[in-house]
Specification:
By secondary structure, this protein is an alpha+beta fold. The chain is about 35% helix and about 15% strand.
Length: about 190
């Protein structure tokens, strides 16, 4: 005897599997807090009609995962408003959410990084170089000997941009170096 289409039993088995584990699929898609418990109830008691209905009702309940309430900002340029706990920029002086006046917060300064360093011949030239770098708005950092630089920056590209600003603005000629705090070659950066 011909049993018919050989795919039909496979499709029937697949359909039965989907129906049997429907409560688990619902809990998973809703990101239910008790997803594992619903799966176990569905697996062990789903063969009884009451176990299956109970798992489905539990999976459909409103006990789902909520996004983290006012989690700390992930961007280092952001912080939480001290009045409404909404995310605002570090440089903000007024909260865009509640309108409160807040003090701007400077981001922490890097202890190591890429620097556009300029060599100086004497202390007078060093003083003039520091004033020239400050006039461009770049951060000033002391280097070995009489050298000073702009930085430190996280990436070499940022230091190259600072080098261009220093060259085009106050006409300072610099080189890109990596300034670290471990080697002891440079004075520590105060906080």
């Amino acid at each position: 005897m011909d049993s018919g289409n050989p795919i039909a039993p496979f499709l029937l088995l697949l359909f039965a599997f989907v129906i049997y584990f429907l409560p688990t699929f619902v809990a998973s898609s809703r990101k239910h807090v008790n997803g594992t418990s619903i799966f176990l109830m569905n697996l062990l008691l789903g063969w009884t009609f009451l176990g299956w209905v109970g798992a489905l009702v539990w999976a459909s309940s409103a006990n789902t995962e909520r996004p983290a309430e006012k989690a700390a900002p992930t961007n280092t340029g952001d912080r939480l408003c001290p009045y409404c706990a909404e995310t605002i920029k570090n440089a903000a002086i007024k909260c865009k959410h509640c309108g409160a006046d807040v003090m701007p917060q400077n981001p922490p300064r890097l202890k190591a990084g890429w620097v556009a360093s300029t060599a100086c011949r004497d202390e007078e030239e060093q003083k003039q170089t520091i004033e020239a770098i400050e006039s461009t708005g770049l951060p000033v950092v002391s280097m070995m000997g009489l050298a000073v630089g702009a930085g430190p920056f996280e990436t070499k590209e940022e230091a190259k941009q600072a080098l261009i600003v220093m060259r085009d603005g106050p006409r300072l000629f610099s080189e890109i170096v990596y300034r670290d705090s471990v080697s002891g070659k440079y004075p520590p950066i105060p906080d």
